[in-house]
Amino acid sequence: MSPTKEDYIKILFELGGRFMRVPNKEVAGRLQISPPTVTEMMHSLVKVGWVDYMPYKGSILTEEGTERAKQIIRKHRLWEVFLFENLGFGIHDVHREAELLEHSTSDAVARKLEEYLDYPEFCPHGGAIRTSQMDVQEDRTITISDAEPGRKFMISRIVDDEKLVNYFRNQHLNIGDEVIVKEVDADIDLITLAIVKNGDEIQISMTLGKYLFVESI
């Protein structure tokens, strides 16, 4: 299934596109499409007022685009909670199904779903559900790639992507885990982490570390 306009602005939001320009290459990588296809879509998003695009520099969300992205992310995360808590889907399986449901969910249905779920605060991957809390969460967290070596952090969110979620699970990095950043080596794109609960040390790439969000503790 081809990505929709809403998929693009959702990815831009998750990659920090509300406050900085995101290169087309990063968007293409997340959506697994070609950069020229992204460029074509960005021009379409400019026309509807959701994005400001500059060739060779990337795209940044407009205020309208940011609010639209928050609404679709909210619907996506509500469906993830429903699938996880009510239908027994695994935490690593809910993303794909929520992707299908989010685009056909009206605002009225989203409100009823939120009420039915008793107003959850976070999705299974740690993402804030209330749009008013999304900016708060973004402001108080950093990516593990930007974390200062020698300090302790708690994993608070994983970017909502099935492959990324499975990758971090296989590395034994889960929401709520405490880690110490032992070393960051930009020259070889590598971060060394110690998992506090068992002392194990693991290494992940800085590139993938941009999708793992932590809070200082």
From TrEMBL:
InterPro entries assigned: DtxR_MntR_Metal-Reg, Fe-transptr_FeoA-like, Fe_dep_repressor, Fe_dep_repressor_sf, FeoA_core_dom, HTH_DTXR, Iron_dep_repressor, WH-like_DNA-bd_sf
Entry keyword Transcription: yes
Transmembrane feature ranges: none
Residue ranges of domain HTH dtxR-type in the record: 1-62
Domain of life per record: Bacteria
Listed GO MF terms: DNA binding; DNA-binding transcription factor activity; protein dimerization activity; transition metal ion binding
Signal peptide positions on this chain: none
Record carries keyword Transferase: no
Key words of the record: DNA-binding, Transcription, Transcription regulation
Family named by the database record: Belongs to the DtxR/MntR family.
Protein name: DtxR family iron (Metal) dependent repressor
UniProt organism field: Salinicoccus kekensis
